[in-house]
Write a structure and sequence with these properties.
The protein contains 11 helices and 12 strands. The protein is α/β, with parallel strands linked by helices and about 350 residues long. The chain folds into 2 domains: about 270 residues, TIM Barrel; about 70 residues, Antifreeze-like/N-acetylneuraminic acid synthase C-terminal domain (Type Iii Antifreeze Protein Isoform Hplc 12, Alpha-Beta Complex).
Length: about 350
């Protein structure tokens, strides 16, 4: 698989690439096309690279007898909750075109094989959700599209991740990114474990990132960016007060904008890791680096000693031998008269 690839002109790479930021609209459209379009506006205004939705059918996720989900605190069955969150497939062309018009990549998570076939003509990439990581038929269908794939790894062991990567590779997937994720909503800070992203990058030699479910809009994404995340995903909403299971832990528009701004700021200070003299340092490198210079006039033939030379910062004076040359200089006499406060150079040095 590739160590670097593009999604709609944005590069995802194992090293040195910019962070691909995904605004996860998910099912926070609440069944309203206008709300879905408004969510795309929010992602664009925040500076995201992509917007992501989800396509699922309740009947392909849970049996009707599955019961209630305790963590949601909703009296309805999980089947009924999911059914109310379904995104109509006939929205897809309009959502895609609207996202493209806002210079956003359009990414969708399919949750059953038939959805993959529906999505393939419309999306720039497919996202495999954490709970689908062991769903080999879905993985194979995604790989068969030839589209770039992103896979979250929440609630999974490293062996399970490795098995899923192997399934995708055997099925022909060439462009895959992995995301560290904690499958809790919200995820406690101590569970986020951003460094697992680095572990997966080192093991699989694939672009890796963070799908962040923690409350804070910036701490985990900034940490991931500092550690070289190729991509970051965050759930967002128009308002936490809207009805539905995913609004309460999602960030609001200001939080999403703050996250993207923070990611870009971290990218600037993170740099590329090469230890060089930056242009901003050149003036003070010359001004404040120490050289060997005379502290008083030294006459020709006089020996250099710590009574007449010192290691000082040069300021705007020119030249000067490095402090590492001090011992050699102290074994020499002055070849010529040397005025006080003169940076010493080779022509000043006579034999000892």
């Amino acid at each position: 698989m590739k160590t670097s690839f593009e999604i709609r002109g944005r590069t995802l790479a194992t090293h040195d690439g910019p962070c691909f930021v995904i605004g996860e609209a998910g099912s926070n459209h609440n069944g309203s096309l206008s709300q879905a379009l408004a969510l795309i506006d929010v992602a664009a205004d925040a500076g995201c690279d992509a917007v992501k939705f989800q396509v699922f059918k309740a009947k392909r996720l849970y049996p009707k007898a599955a019961g209630q989900s305790d963590y949601l605190g909703d009296a309805r069955s999980i089947y009924d909750i999911i059914a109310a969150m379904e995104l109509p497939e006939d929205w897809l062309p309009q959502l895609r075109d609207y996202a493209w018009g806002k210079s956003l990549a359009f990414v969708v998570s399919p949750f059953h094989e038939e959805a993959v076939e529906v999505l393939a003509p419309h999306v720039d990439a497919l996202k495999i959700a954490s709970y689908e990581l062991t769903h080999a038929p879905l993985l194979e269908a995604c790989a068969a599209t030839g589209l770039p794939l992103i896979m979250s790894t929440g609630a999974s062991t490293m062996d399970e991740v490795a098995q899923a990567v192997a399934v995708l590779e055997r099925a022909g997937c060439a462009e895959l990114a992995l995301m560290q994720c904690t499958a809790a909503y919200p995820a406690p800070p101590e569970s986020v474990n951003v460094r697992a992203m680095v572990t997966m990058r080192d093991r699989f030699q694939l672009p890796t990132g963070l799908s962040d479910h923690s409350f804070d809009p910036t701490v985990a994404p900034m940490t991931a960016t500092a550690l070289g995340a190729a991509l970051i995903e965050k759930h967002y909403t128009l308002s936490k007060k809207l009805p539905g299971p995913d609004h309460a832990f999602a960030v609001e528009p200001a939080g999403l904008e703050s996250m993207v701004r923070s990611i870009r700021a971290v990218e600037v200070v993170r740099g590329r890791g090469h230890k060089v003299v930056h242009g901003a340092e050149e003036e003070l490198r010359s001004f404040a680096r120490r050289v060997v210079m005379t502290t008083r006039e030294v006459r020709a033939g006089e020996a250099f000693s710590r009574d007449n030379v010192d290691v000082l910062r040069r300021g705007k004076l020119v030249g000067g031998l490095a402090p590492s040359e001090l011992e050699r200089i102290l074994e020499c006499t002055a070849a010529v008269d040397v005025p006080a406060e003169t940076p010493l150079v080779e022509r000043h040095l006579g034999r000892g």
